[in-house]
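Query form — protein MIF4G domain-containing protein

QUESTION: What is the three-dimensional structure of this chain?
INPUT:
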Amino acid sequence: MGEPSREEYKIQSFDAETQQLLKTALKAPSLECTVACFETEDGEYSVCQRSYSNCSRLMPSRCNTQYRDPGAVDLEKVANVIVDHSLQDCVFSKEAGRMCYAIIQAESKQAGQSVFRRGLLNRLQQEYQAREQLRARSLQGWVCYVTFICNIFDYLRVNNMPMMALVNPVYDCLFRLAQPDSLSKEEEVDCLVLQLHRVGEQLEKMNGQRMDELFVLIRDGFLLPTGLSSLAQLLLLEIIEFRAAGWKTTPAAHKYYYSEVSD
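ANSWER: The structure tokens for MIF4G domain-containing protein are given below.
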């Protein structure tokens, strides 16, 4: 039987106080929790979706086993810390959704509250409302934001369904990435395609009409490739065929597109 999946989060770049804040927020109230936070050999902190006692990678000699109540920390501050770092670090933003999910679960089990989720969604809304200013100020920050909000949409659930409150904001961000001035920038095209790979199928189930409209823009951008690089054209064609195949990559398409990109 293989190891359960786990994601590692590089939080050692934070100052000591913030590291402790994040580690405490990530910890559930008992050692037999479903989420354990620990330090690995390479100095990274990881969220392991196993119980503490069964995790072979846990290092008791270096892990603080004094699990504290996640609700005892300022979870609104934690939400802001995670969003701030996600806007600066696109690698972090790609997987921060799992960290946020872990904190929400820990808070819910211990306190039955949703302070962190509320703070997270409020901050996402603030950044969403200022998205054009963010894009004008920092293209990387904008791409990181889109990556982050899509990641949150992918992980957060209400009654085992994606959060309806995030559907239109996520669509609006993707529509912005499909505008001609964005399609002329490979960073934005790459972000658009990656996020559609990740959440496109879920989004279409929530609102198929908007997905149809989005792909009209994408097809127009591909057919009228003024200013598009060859890589951007290839990525757009790939995502068009990916959706047409039922959000799946056929073996032939995988061989073609990945060989083209590698070349």
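ADDITIONAL NOTE: The longest helix spans residues 90-111.
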